[in-house]
Specification:
The structure is a single chain. By secondary structure, this protein is α/β, with parallel strands linked by helices. About 40% of the residues lie in helices and about 15% in strands. The chain has 11 helices and 8 strands. Helix 5 (about 115-145) runs parallel beside helix 7.
Length: about 290
């Protein structure tokens, strides 16, 4: 795999940390962006423990809800790391931020219970910031004729589940944006795809009630963050150059198979399709 430069938002903890470390361990240079300064030192320790040199992973603290911060991050990747080839839009406010008592409530939180500030913050973080980052990096990727935009959305039946607002709508916007970008980028050497957990993830933002339920079997198993790395590394590889506009779920990725075969079994078109939609072999027009 060629050495390239990646930006990973939400990259200092949870899924983002795992993906940033995975990219760096694979030989890429990574700007790992988070909004909590206290996450920087644990990230540096995690990188050191994995034998990742300091020159390969640059932690950054920024509020990507600020347009100027997004511009500064792209400039920093270019100036400090030598360019930009891969963007992973992972940053997001999850259910435990939106409804901290989600697993203790007798019924889901309704949309009318959400305040204006909460809704705006979720939309700004989960969709608008990802949109800004993509719009800033796209001209650079197009100019060099190679690039990967990877978005982290969520399961379709999570987006429309009662009590999912505004998380579901924010991820639905990013899902549709991925489909549109894939069509507009077709044939340019730049792709837009989705890598999802496919299940609840064992991250700092996940409610302890889910962790407890997962351990005792009353709730589905939680995905470990490192499970995101295998599908991500394939999607950003040269081997995936013809794969554009697809979604891959980490919890069903077959790590025992070669990446190309795992992707063929796992991939589904991005966007709002039936849950049993055919894999990409049945939709050659989108497969490249």
């Amino acid at each position: 795999m060629a050495e390239r430069v990646a930006i990973v938002t939400g990259g200092l903890r949870g899924l983002g940390q795992a993906m940033a470390l995975g990219l760096a361990a694979a030989g890429h240079r990574v700007l790992a962006v988070g909004h909590i300064a206290d996450d920087v030192e644990p990230m540096r320790i995690a990188a050191h423990d994995r034998g990742i040199p300091e020159s390969a992973l640059l932690p950054a603290v920024a509020d990507i809800r600020d347009p100027e911060a997004c511009t500064a991050l792209v400039d920093r990747a270019c100036n400090r790391l030598g360019g930009i080839h891969i963007l992973v839009n992972n940053a997001g406010l999850t259910f435990t931020t939106i409804s901290p008592d989600k697993f203790r409530r007798p019924s889901p939180q309704s949309f009318w219970e959400c305040g204006d500030t909460l809704v705006q913050s979720v939309m700004d973080t989960n969709f608008t910031a990802a949109d800004r980052m993509a719009r800033r990096v796209a001209p650079l990727l197009l100019a060099q004729g190679w690039g990967r935009i990877v978005n982290v959305t969520t399961k379709l039946d999570t987006m429309n589940r009662p009590g999912s607002s505004p998380y579901g709508p924010s991820k639905a916007a990013l899902e549709m944006a991925t489909e549109i970008r894939a069509k507009e980028l077709d044939g340019t050497g730049v792709t837009a795809n989705i890598v999802n957990p496919g299940a609840g993830a064992n991250t700092p933002g996940m409610a302890e009630e889910w962790r407890t339920g997962s351990r005792n079997g009353s709730m589905p198993p939680l995905l470990e963050p490192d499970e995101m790395v295998a599908p991500l590394l394939f999607v950003v590889s040269d081997a995936a150059g013809g794969i554009n506009g697809f979604r891959f779920d980490a919890n069903t990725w077959d790590r025992a198979s070669p990446p190309e075969l795992a992707a063929r079994r796992n991939g589904r078109p991005a966007g709002f399709v039936l849950h049993d939609a055919a894999p990409w072999d049945a939709v050659p027009a989108r497969a490249g």
